[in-house]
Recover the amino acids of this structure.
């Protein structure tokens, strides 16, 4: 039977051949995660995804969440799926066993999450946020806070959220007005109204724990005066049992383009002056601390973009192989053929394939960086890897989700008119994924983050470290004859991207700062394209070696022959083709984008507000 | 008050300053359409659009069409709007008075249609198809068919549709199986099942007239054996009164991503063997004849893409001017500012503005070509203009609708998280416009049309004629100092596009035909980018002259000063900025696309089917 959600062969390739996760077993922390165990984990995750989560994807979309009599309910089937998900202990896969996690490498956990999220991103969003909120407790909580909350959150007994946005404080978090007043017992009374809270209220669990950004009375304006509080829906008694309702009132849920299975709530805190929170971390350090969750959330959103892309690709590919329509261009008098034979369909499938594969490698690679930090004793290595993750964050969040819209849109297009109907899942994936470009910092914010913060992070060393990985892949690829041309093209992009980065960085610090930031998003695109090409060339380099072994040489005809009969040859040659397609079809366009950037001018800045018309 | 749907100043610019529609009054056919009359028409259309159609946009989306007890009903408010629309005699604005039209220039009618369609594209689709079906009757109908149907269709008393698609014959129309059997009285008994019929059944009117593609028994296979029939929902008596039900049964309506206000129907014809049609045109010439309607429909879809884009732009622009969020980059300690001050928002607004303006010019220009054909006595001129329209058709349909998705997506993005909610119209426009890339020939089909048919049409003379218009604009722009740089860039694209066209045309005729067609869509993109730049440079050339008059010179500082106080100066400078932005930000990317094309290779063709994975 055709695969759905993800291509298992490719998942395995990235895990074992590209990221070499087995090497992690050398460290005691990951000693038990040998290939057999990892295989089992991925297979179990896939089973759960396909059998329990995927059938609820369409139901979740059609039924949606309900807000009745002040209560929010999730689509009915979600309760059973949630129970199974919890029983499988999937929520804190990559966390330390001492805090209730499964202790597996993050890289491996991402393979599981890919299946779950590709099957049902609305459902998984509840879990992703619970984990992120739990992480805040783990990082900044007092022993008491950990004791009361952490185990219940990491096990999914209770859910978590993140309460940042207010109606007048969206991208501008520093403008928030939710306030906190210290009580005599050290707790805080919280008052305010938050919007766009994913999973802000629902009936999957008995309690929901809200990390809340608020301003303590008298604190400075802007982000410097923001503190982080832990605010449960129901108060928690000293023995961990549930106490009174904590005056966190859901006032409505949003009607949205997609992710209907996830409740997007407006919450009023302390409307009756009875909302009590405890400080998480120190006063006025809330924004900095919240970034621990925001960064995790940004990687989660990148994962969402990727997972929906791979699901869309699998659907489109299966459909293209089955749907018969029109004659082949090379045999116009023959029988009608499956549409995978038509060049424009193939072009779109190749776009979907190469982006999806590049995304998978990037996501797992980022996971591997986390794992390496965890097992490293070398402070410099840890700092370098942390910096690398920071550089990659806006690319993972911003670039992947931009491209996810393109990939899912091709996913719709390949179905022809059927793509616009609810008969097939393609259109839901397209709708669902539109949110990824918006939440956890719009992609415009991600672009500003890359240019304004990450380019100069650690005096530019982190960006250089990022570049050094790409250079290494280019150099390795050059050693393989059939890849040297591709390596040269990527190198040209690499060189010019460095030029553009220097130019933009300099301009961002000058009086022409607006011109620099008008080019921030194009620069994010370029950085993302380069990152995809890096990942695909890396894959191709590994694949060429394997293919040479299988076919005896890298002679084109020999490979072609082997591909017909040998599954691995077919897979590896597909890797060469992905790199070839991306580097020859997309990178020339990337070079054009760099040319536009290095002009360093933008009429978008120069135009008068009035000249926009209207 | 802020404008909605369209920027009237820009509509007027294209009508009077760029297309110079007043010149058409020299011909007796259009003598009465002087500036005053045209102004009145556009104002009336705008009023109707804003007051009657726009308020039904969201209602139509939420309420949708219903299929109950075998009957299809449109959203309730549509009936009143339809009555008003009919009373205004808007359906056949540009058709000859002798067949029931208003006889206005098509160029002018497009300005009215832009407002209507931008206000409510689901509603307008009923009318667009009625007109197209009417056009078939006008072109190919017998006197009797015209007498019975045409007046009632052009007046909107009855609706029209187009019945091509079947479940196994989508893009491959030639595979259809609906059959026609000739009766003794010269009529035909029709049997078959059609799907995806926009407005296929509904309760706006008393009768619906279906042009149906079917195969007469014994006719050749493929498109050569297809005939066109006129099949009413209710038979029509000799005196024009309604007869019996004609066995055209709606079996269901589609659930879709968008355009919920338009019923997309499955129809069974002759299920009880009682469906009677009359031949429209000759037997086996149905496909060729249907192209009259298909071409009109393709231009209609282009208009839809453009209209939804301009509506999205106006919404985003108004929101960006009102929504206050974050400090300015150049004044980080000042007050928070409207988001139009932020460079990345401006970049997105400029993308929306320049694409929308380019689309408007292209759409009106195509209208002008039709008008010129109508009043010309010169056969060569007529043939040239017809060829030009044919070349432009896939660009209007394919390129504009591709870009409409981008424009409406930016329209969502500018709203931040609100963009994903149904609180604002942005998300509906984004959903609605996804169909435009699919129906009336997917954009992949459009790309094949451009490369496979239009490039070589009339031995390439039509494509050359298209190019000659661009060259003329380039040459004129060169004469204006401040535009010569932009003209040079467009010329570089122009030269390289010609190279690419020759190369692709040659390859399409070789054994590497698949490689050529794998590049058909990129070539459509390139041709479209060039066309947009042509339109914007043309606009800029006119605007520079006007600006020079207003400001006394084209000195940058003088212009800047004038823009502050003079509305026209502000508008014209906005035109210079659109051209500047598009040519400096987009065309470098276009050059990159051309580079990728001229490599003439695509791994998408070379890859083995199995190597796609799955």
């Amino acid at each position: 039977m055709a695969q759905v959600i993800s291509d298992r062969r490719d998942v395995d390739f990235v895990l074992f051949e590209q990221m070499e996760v087995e090497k992690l077993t050398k460290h005691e922390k990951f000693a038990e995660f040998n290939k057999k165990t990892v295989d089992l984990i991925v297979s179990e995750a896939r089973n759960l995804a396909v059998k329990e989560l995927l059938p609820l994807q369409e139901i979740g979309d059609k039924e949606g969440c309900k807000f009745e009599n002040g209560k929010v309910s999730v689509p009915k089937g979600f309760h059973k799926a949630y129970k199974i998900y919890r029983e499988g202990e999937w929520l804190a896969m990559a966390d330390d066993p001492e805090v209730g996690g499964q202790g597996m490498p993050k890289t491996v956990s991402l393979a599981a999450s890919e299946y779950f999220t590709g099957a049902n991103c609305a459902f998984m969003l509840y879990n992703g946020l619970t984990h992120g909120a739990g992480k805040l407790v783990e990082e900044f909580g007092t022993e008491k806070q950990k004791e009361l909350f952490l185990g219940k959150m990491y096990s999914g007994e209770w859910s978590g959220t993140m309460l940042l946005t207010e109606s007048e404080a969206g991208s501008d978090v520093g403008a928030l007005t939710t306030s906190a007043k210290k009580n005599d017992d050290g707790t805080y009374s919280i008052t305010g109204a938050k919007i766009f809270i994913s999973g802000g209220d629902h009936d999957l669990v008995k309690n929901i724990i809200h990390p809340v950004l608020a301003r303590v009375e008298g604190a400075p304006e802007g982000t410097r005066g923001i503190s982080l509080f832990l605010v449960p829906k129901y108060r928690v008694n000293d023995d961990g049992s549930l106490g009174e309702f904590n005056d966190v009132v859901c006032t409505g849920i949003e009607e949205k383009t997609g992710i209907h299975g996830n409740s997007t709530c407006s919450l009023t805190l302390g409307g009756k002056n009875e909302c009590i929170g405890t400080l998480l971390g120190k006063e006025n350090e809330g924004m900095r601390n919240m970034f621990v969750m925001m960064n995790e959330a940004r990687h989660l959103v990148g994962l969402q973009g990727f997972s929906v892309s791979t699901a869309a690709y699998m659907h489109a590919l299966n459909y293209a192989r089955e749907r018969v329509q029109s004659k082949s261009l090379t045999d116009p008098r023959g029988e009608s053929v499956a549409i995978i034979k038509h060049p424009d369909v193939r072009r779109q499938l190749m776009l979907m394939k190469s982006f999806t594969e590049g995304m998978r490698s990037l996501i797992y690679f980022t996971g591997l960086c986390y794992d390496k930090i965890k097992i490293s004793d070398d402070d410099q290595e840890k700092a370098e890897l942390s910096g690398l993750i920071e550089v990659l964050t806006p690319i993972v969040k911003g670039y992947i989700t931009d491209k996810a819209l393109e990939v899912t849109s091709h996913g719709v297009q390949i179905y022809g008119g059927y793509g616009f109907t609810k008969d097939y899942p393609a259109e839901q994936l397209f709708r669902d994924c539109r949110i990824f470009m918006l939440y956890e910092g719009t992609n415009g914010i991600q672009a500003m983050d890359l240019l304004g913060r990450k380019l100069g992070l650690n005096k530019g060393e982190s960006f250089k470290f990022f570049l050094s990985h790409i250079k290494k892949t280019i150099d390795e690829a050059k050693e393989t004859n059939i890849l040297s041309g591709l390596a040269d093209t990527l190198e040209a992009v690499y060189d010019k991207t460095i030029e553009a980065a220097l130019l933009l960085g300099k301009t961002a610090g000058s009086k022409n700062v607006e011109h620099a930031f008008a080019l921030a998003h194009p620069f994010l695109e370029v950085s993302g394209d380069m990152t995809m090409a890096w990942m695909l060339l890396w894959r191709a380099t590994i694949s060429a070696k394997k293919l040479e072994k299988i076919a005896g040489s890298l002679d084109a005809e020999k490979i072609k022959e082997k591909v017909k009969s040998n599954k691995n040859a077919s897979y590896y040659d597909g890797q060469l083709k992905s790199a070839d397609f991306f580097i020859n079809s997309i990178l020339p366009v990337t070079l054009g984008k760099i040319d536009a950037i290095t002009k360093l001018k933008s009429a978008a800045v120069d135009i008068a507000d009035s000249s926009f018309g209207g």
About this structure: The mean pLDDT of chain A is 97. Chain A has two domains: 1-368+399-440, 442-605. The domain at 1-368+399-440 of chain A is CATH 2.40.110.20 (Butyryl-CoA Dehydrogenase, subunit A; domain 2). Chain A touches chain B through 112 residues (CB under 8 Å).
